[in-house]
Design brief:
The complex is a heterodimer of chains A (about 375) and B (about 230). Chain A is about 35% helix and about 20% strand. With about 375 residues, chain A is of the alpha/beta class. Chain A folds into 4 domains: about 70 residues, no CATH class; about 100 residues, no CATH class; about 100 residues, Rossmann fold, CATH 3.40.50.11290; about 60 residues, Dna Ligase, domain 1 (2-Layer Sandwich), CATH 3.30.1490. In chain A, the strands form 4 sheets. In chain A, strands 5, 6, 7, 8, 9 and 10 form a 6-stranded mixed beta sheet that branches. Chain A has a 4-stranded antiparallel beta sheet with strand order 12-15-13-14, covered by helices on one side. The longest helix of chain A has 25 residues. The radius of gyration of chain A is 22 Å and the shape is globular. With about 230 residues, chain B is an all-alpha fold. Chain B folds into 2 domains: about 140 residues, no CATH class; about 80 residues, no CATH class. Chain B starts with 5 loop residues before the first helix and ends in a 6-residue tail after the last helix. At the A-B interface, helix 9 and strand 6 of A face helix 1 and helix 6 of B.
Chain lengths: ~375, ~230
């Protein structure tokens, strides 16, 4: 494994050669940066990996069942497992998705579940990402290059190969495809994850599409070819957010959506990967209830636990939070991507008192974690 | 035939044009650079006139720096290379990561040498090498024939345009025109037959084509209806 450290510069040079970049906007200008390679891997032993595999599969299965329920009968609310308020006030809950059954009954085809290992060596779920989780391409290409740089690491040790991700993505798209080609829909060249969009399209054999390449006619989705002909699209791995996906259904000012695509989806004539409306299941407030979902839908105890979490909505939790606020991490449930996170230990006494008042006034808004 | 949208056909065509523009103008630049070492210091003015770019340089030194590396100069080599890259990067699926890498490498050389090249011909030979590697890799790796034909349509159209401006001999023009037509007819791109006929007539005149160079260039520019 130490060869990896010796070859860090070579690997970074190859990553530059292949344009492995991510974009950031700074002062309203788009800049692309190379993805830096860290030669030190986090080693997960086979037994532990298998445990994580079982735990993550269980969690994603329950989250899929939750989405199917929440956009149909809402039994989990009716039976009092999750308070209705947490579902309906979630920004990720989209009434436009009510009654839609996606092809293959799959909502979250690709799930990005964040894990953290505590000082006690136990693994905890930090958050769920079920909308358009990003990042699979970087470890794929990094693995390709690390195998070249340190072949003995891989011949001496049995390491699970992650390079079949694109084949699995293709298999997933083929499984839900309603008839037609597979496309990866990107907002465009200046999206932060454009490298990933183009790389996954290349590797999975899907067609990389810009929004203007797609159009709806007679309740079907088509890819417009330059000679005037068209190809029907059966599955769309879309890498743009729900709100921009269809200006006729969501934000009317969206210029990067495909008008009418939601109608085609609603009628079962195209698969959208992942399904619109998944945001309700990866909401920070809903996160608290995932272990309850697992019990409710699968009749099992959660294999992987949430990071110790308190919800100010419940009186008992609120009491604990207010007594230990200086040692806890407070997250605004309506924020995502690291925004709205406050570390109690960083606050002055005055600021802690102000925060306590906000929590008392808006208990639905705050999720508190001890990590 | 794979799925190629209007946007992608446009990108492929312009990738061909900008890639060729960098290659041919860089090689021509080398000739003029050599002339300016100990001959006509203002030879760059003839270069600008021939390839129809405004002479905004004012001196040999300024030209040698800005024409190669000034990203704010729309006619510079680096600006044209960036445009080639912008068109290539959205075509990763069609070109493949390994082919696309040569466009990235050519751009990186120009960016890396920016402002510090004291022997540019030696250093920039790498750009030519990478672009030639790109063309070779593209031929070998890109499976879709239509895709290859569209890129090469752009490439040979640009080469013809530059060769005509630079007054290349009839044999070279005939050779490039033949390669261009070969790709054009198999590209599926929509073009004007009358422009093709006019070009064929002028190119068929042998060395006398130069008497009709403006007409030839005009026919070339007006050949495509969409792109």
């Amino acid at each position: 494994m130490y060869e990896l450290i010796d070859h860090t510069e070579n690997i970074n040079r190859l990553l530059a050669r292949y344009g492995v970049k991510f974009g950031i906007y700074k002062n309203s200008q788009f800049h692309e940066q190379l993805f830096p390679f860290d030669p030190l891997p986090r080693v997960i032993e086979a037994e532990e990996f298998e445990f994580l595999n079982r735990g993550l599969s269980q969690r994603v299965q329950a989250l899929n069942l939750f989405l199917a329920d929440i956009y149909s009968e809402k039994k989990i609310i009716k039976e009092g497992v999750i308070p209705a308020d947490f579902v309906y006030s979630s920004k990720g809950y989209l009434p436009q998705c009510q009654g839609i059954v996606p092809p293959g009954k799959i909502y979250s085809h690709i799930s990005g579940i964040d894990l953290v290992q505590g000082k006690d060596e136990n693994w905890y779920i930090l958050e769920d990402n079920l909308r358009i989780p990003s990042g699979a391409s970087y470890p794929m290409i990094a693995r390709e290059l690390t195998r070249q740089a340190a072949p003995s690491t891989f011949s001496r040790t049995r390491i699970i190969d992650n390079r079949n991700y694109a084949a699995m993505l293709k298999e997933t798209m083929d499984y839900v495809n309603t008839g037609g080609i597979n496309v990866v829909l990107t907002p465009g060249r200046y999206n932060a994850a454009f490298f990933e969009h183009s790389y996954l399209a290349e590797r999975s054999g899907a067609i990389l599409s810009m929004p203007q390449d797609l159009f709806v006619e007679d309740n079907k989705l088509y890819y417009r070819q330059y000679g005037g002909s068209r190809l029907q699209v059966g599955a769309v791995y879309r890498r743009l957010s729900d709100e921009y996906l269809d200006p006729l259904c969501f934000l009317p000012e969206s210029l990067i959506g495909v008008p009418g695509i939601m109608d085609v989806y609603r009628n079962g004539n195209v698969a959208l990967v992942n399904a619109p409306g998944n945001g309700v299941a990866d909401d920070k407030g809903i996160y608290y209830f995932v272990p309850h979902m697992i019990k409710y839908y699968l009749g099992e105890e959660a294999i992987l636990h949430n990071a110790p979490t308190y919800l100010a909505f419940y009186e008992e939790d609120r009491k604990f939070i207010l007594e230990h606020l200086n040692r806890l991490v407070v997250k605004d449930v309506s924020e995502a991507g690291g925004y709205g996170v406050i570390f109690g230990s960083d606050l002055t006494r005055e600021k802690l008192e102000d925060l306590a008042e906000v929590i008392k006034a808006e208990p639905r808004r705050s999720l508190i974690s001890s990590i | 035939m794979g799925a190629i949208s209007i946007e992608k056909a446009d990108r492929l065509f312009w990738l061909g044009r900008y890639g060729e523009r960098v290659l041919t103008t860089l090689m021509t630049y080398f000739d003029f650079y050599d002339e300016m070492i100990d001959g006509d210091e203002e030879a760059y003015r003839i270069f600008c006139e021939k390839i129809a770019i405004p002479d905004v340089y004012g001196s040999k030194e300024n030209f040698q720096q800005r024409y190669l590396f000034d990203q704010d100069d729309p006619n510079s080599i680096i600006s044209n290379m960036e445009r080639a890259f912008d068109n290539a990067v959205v075509m990763r699926g069609e070109l493949g990561t390994y082919t696309l890498a040569y466009v990235q490498l050519a751009l990186d050389v120009l960016k890396g040498e920016n402002g510090k090249a004291d022997a540019p011909v030696y250093d920039l030979q790498q750009v030519i090498d990478y672009l030639n590697a790109f063309w070779g890799c593209m031929d070998d790796q890109v499976e879709d024939e239509v895709c290859r034909n569209i890129i090469k349509c752009g490439k040979y159209l640009e080469r013809l345009d530059l060769y005509m401006r630079l007054g290349y001999p009839a044999r070279s023009i005939e050779k490039e025109y033949s390669k261009f037509l070969n790709r054009l007819h198999r590209s599926g791109l929509s073009y004007k037959k009358d422009c093709e006929e006019k070009l064929t007539g002028i190119v068929g005149l042998g060395e006398d084509w130069k008497e009709h160079d403006k007409e030839a260039l005009e026919a070339l520019w007006n050949l495509f209806e969409v792109i």
